[in-house]
From TrEMBL:
PROSITE patterns: IMP_1 (PS00629), IMP_2 (PS00630). This is inositol-phosphate phosphatase. GO terms for molecular function: inositol monophosphate 1-phosphatase activity; metal ion binding. CDD domains: IMPase_like. The keyword Hydrolase applies. Its cofactor is Mg(2+). InterPro entries: Inositol_monoP_metal-BS, Inositol_monophosphatase-like, Inositol_monophosphatase_CS. It comes from Peribacillus asahii.
Amino acid sequence: MDQYAKKWIKEAGAKLRESFATELNIETKTNPNDLVTNMDKETERFFVSKIKETFPGHRIFGEEGMGHDINDLKGTVWIIDPIDGTLNFIHQQRNFAISLAIYEDGVGKVGMVYDVVHDELYHAIKGEGAYLNHYPLSPLSKVGVEEAILSINASWIVTNKRINPAILAALVNDVRGTRSYGSAALELAFVAAGRIDGYITMRLSPWDFAAGSILVEEVGGKVSDLFGENLDYIKGGSLFAAKPGFHEFVLEEYILKR
Ligand code: 2AM
Ligand code: CA
Ligand code: CA
Ligand code: CA
C-alpha cells in the first residue's frame, strides 16, 4: 500500500510542478481568503481514481469533496489533502505539500507529507520509523522553552475565542523564536524533522493533520488538541504538536495554568 502511495504522491507532485507554467483557475470557498484551484481538485481526483482502481474496498476522505459524509474510520480509509497550503501554492509556488494518510480501523498506519517544490517526501509507517526521502529521522530530543522555535500564526495572539490570547503572547515572548509557514502538514513534518520544536494552531480539519501526526508520533513527539486532549479525526479542531517534554511543559505552565 505504501509503495503505491509513494508512487502516486510523486506523480501528483510532478503534475503540480508542471502546473506552475499554466494559468490557475482560482475560486473562493467559504470566504474571500478561502481559495481552491483547479489543481486542488484535479489532484484529489487523481488520487481517488488510482485508489478506487487499485483498492476498490478502501474508503477516501479528502478536502475537496470525497467522503464528506464519513462519520467513522472503520476499515481502510485514505485521508488526503491534495494541496495543503493553497494560499502559498497560489502566491508563492512553495511552502505547500500533499498530505496523504492511511488509517486502518482508526489507527494511523501510513503518513506521507510531500514538499513538492523541494522534492522532500516525509514518510512513516507506524512502528517502522519516519524518513525524509531515504534518511531516517532521529528520535526527538528534549528542549527548554527558552531554546524552542515555535510555529504559530500571529493572528491567534491578537484575537482568539478558544484561549486567552495573553497566554499565547506569554509563550511567544518566552520562546527563542516563532515561525509561521501556512501549511499544517509541512509544519507537522518540520516538527518530526526537528526543524521546529512545536506547532500550535486553533482550527484544522482531519486531512490537515492525519499524515503529519503519524510522522510526529513516530519520532517520539506528542500530538494533541490545544488542551492536551486526543485529536478528533472526523471533525478536526485545534492542534498542539511538540517535542516530548516541551509539550507537557507548555500545557502545564502556560495553556492549562490558570
Ligand atoms: P489548506 O491550504 O489545505 O486549506 C493555514 O494556516 C493552514 O490551515 C493550512 O494547512 C490550511 O490548509 C489550513 N486551513 C485553512 N483554512 C482552514 C479552515 N477554514 N479550516 C481548517 N483548516 C484550514
Ligand atoms: Ca482549503
Ligand atoms: Ca489543508
Ligand atoms: Ca487543501
